[in-house]
């Protein structure tokens, strides 16, 4: 896909949680084509401690409103500055970057597993799968009920199952402890979130001979495969997650060897 550098306008900045903000960004021209699993690199203006762009997953694309959604976890100076953006502000973005999730084939039952801010790309993916008539189940995990994000949006595109570590919502425990994994079969699993969670999901998929893709969250700087800080060892040698991923089939990774 063609990459663009665009000044996008903040349509809204919705604080979902003390640590998370949902930015809706628009442009006067039609936004470029994007696919679930891709990301953008955003420029942080007026930050003396943030010299590089920040990679953020594409959370959703509202084609009717010509809007791009970014779910931002405010964990450092740069992302905290993004959390202070207001309607009408501009945000310079390079997009779309990376390779996303594979296009669905004849498979119909999808399980999308996410944790923390890793749920972001799964909303866009779920929307695309739902539009193609696929059966979508979201399995979302968090520490507590207050950390669960965008549940009403996920509910538009499929069944939503929850786990929390403290049992305040859904089933108590981690996503890989949810009863649905023992009771139902899925044709394909897609996952994004903390690496230990994705590794556990990958092992489950391998044990049940289920196709599985994961979106890695390696540290990225350039987003173009030039700086080599996001390199991942794979069955095909060392690859740049930002350029060759961030989405990989688990059979490409060395997690299961």
In short:
This protein is α/β, with parallel strands linked by helices. The protein contains 6 helices and 15 strands.
Q: What features would you highlight for this structure?
A:
257 residues, alpha/beta, Elongation Factor Tu (Ef-tu), domain 3, Rossmann fold, 2 domains, seven-stranded mixed sheet, six-stranded antiparallel β-barrel, 15 strands
Description:
The structure is a single chain. By secondary structure, this protein is α/β, with parallel strands linked by helices. It folds into 2 domains: 4-97, Translation factors (Elongation Factor Tu (Ef-tu), domain 3, Beta Barrel), CATH 2.40.30.10; 109-215, 3-Layer(aba) Sandwich (Rossmann fold), CATH 3.40.50.80. Helix content is 17%, strand content 36%. The protein is built from 6 helices and 15 strands. It has helices at 77-82, 120-131, 151-155, 180-183, 195-207, 241-244; strands at 4-17, 20-26, 39-42, 54-62, 67-73, 90-97, 109-115, 135-142, 159-164, 171-172, 188-192, 211-215, 231-234, 237-240, 247-249. A 7-stranded mixed β-sheet has the order 10-9-8-7-11-12-15, with helices on both faces. Strands 1-2-5-4-3-6 form a 6-stranded antiparallel beta barrel. Helix 3 (151-155) links the parallel strand 8 and strand 9. It is globular, with a radius of gyration of 18 Å. It starts with a strand and ends in an 8-residue tail after the last strand.
């Amino acid at each position: 896909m063609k990459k663009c550098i665009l000044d996008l306008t903040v349509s809204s900045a919705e604080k979902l949680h003390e640590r998370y903000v949902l930015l809706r960004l628009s442009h006067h021209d039609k936004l470029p084509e994007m696919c679930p699993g891709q990301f953008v690199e955003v420029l942080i203006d007026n930050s003396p401690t943030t010299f590089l762009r920040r990679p953020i997953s594409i959370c959703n694309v509202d084609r009717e409103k010509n809007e791009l959604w970014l779910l931002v976890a405010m964990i450092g100076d740069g992302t905290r500055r993004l959390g202070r953006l207001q309607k009408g502000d501009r945000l310079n973005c390079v997009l779309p970057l990376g390779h996303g999730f594979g296009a669905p084939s004849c498979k119909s039952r999808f399980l999308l597993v996410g944790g923390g801010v890793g749920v972001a790309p799964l909303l866009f993916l779920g929307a695309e799968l739902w539009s193609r008539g696929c059966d979508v189940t979201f399995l979302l995990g968090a520490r507590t009920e207050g950390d669960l994000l965008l549940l009403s949006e996920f509910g538009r595109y499929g069944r939503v199952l929850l786990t929390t570590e403290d049992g305040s919502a859904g089933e108590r425990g981690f996503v890989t402890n949810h009863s649905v994994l023992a009771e139902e079969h899925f044709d394909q699993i897609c996952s994004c979130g903390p690496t230990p969670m994705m590794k556990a999901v990958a092992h489950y998929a391998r044990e049940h001979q289920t196709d599985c893709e994961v979106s890695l969250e390696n540290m990225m700087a350039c987003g173009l495969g030039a700086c080599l800080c996001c390199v991942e060892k794979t069955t095909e040698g060392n690859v740049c997650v930002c350029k060759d991923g961030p989405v990989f089939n688990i059979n490409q990774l060395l997690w299961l060897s």
